[in-house]
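Lecture 7 notes: from sequence to structure.
We start with the chain below.
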Amino acid sequence: MKKLLITMLVLVFALSLTGCSADKSSTGENSQKTITIGVMPDVESVPFIIAEKNGYFAQNGINVKIEHFTSAKDRDSALQSGKLDGVVTDVLAVVFANEGGIDLKMIAKNEGNILLMGGKDSGIKSMADLKGKAVGLSTNTIMEYTVDRMLTAAGLEAGDINKIAIPPLPTRLEMLQGGKIDAAILPDPLAGLAINNGALVLSSTDQLKNKAGAIAFTGKSLKDNPEEIKAVFKAYDQAVDYMQKEPVTSYADFIIQEQGFPPTVKDILELPVYNHATAPDSEIVADAVQWMQEKNLIKKDFQYKDLVAESVLR
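Predicted structure tokens for the same chain:
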């Protein structure tokens, strides 16, 4: 009788454990969190695309979903609604997000190059020739910030040019090539198309050494998934190692397809020299904040520690 009672208790205990396990499974407690990263059709996002293609996320024990967007507005809307954990973005966008009450922290800078170019038949041969000329850009963004800093470096002022607001990048490229504006600022790979069609490079963030691109994650995701996000950047670094060894031609077709680049960029595609994930430059962050304050775009006085989560890459 005693043995029977013990046997029954063991069975009851085992069944209760099975029930708990089933409950956890049904509620998703045992399911692995998927980290969702929003990217734009740019070269800055390429290491994440390669990490997904080569299986580096899985090797590091994480599920990652790369969400593609064709407009920053749609990407930022998805971020605000909680659909994204991280984004490939820039310092100014992160500051704007925090000013608007969204807890978004930069983890690393990115390597994309932005170029200011004179049109083929504009007669512009140097930065000095920009005085009084129509320059296509997007206002209150990294593009306008970069143009202003390029002008300052050349001894010019923002008021020396006629800023023409053209937010869509393809439209800006088309207007530059059609001679409807004298100059324009564009990121790669669209800048490469413009150069291939006769545009002249006047300045670039590579030359200026003032890149304000960033990779950022929400404060909530950093709190809830710290180890997963660290693993994301381990995979990112693996992708960088791969691209430093492999010729671009071995994965160019895949990148063009995934990022929605025009097929015509294949023969002129130039990618940045990618480096392992590194925290944003404090001087560039402070300079961007100062520029935004001077233009009365923000009211808060953000410090580096307010905008950057330095512990992730340690």
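Points to note: Confidence is low (pLDDT under 50) at residues 1-30. The chain has two domains: 34-111+211-313, 114-208.
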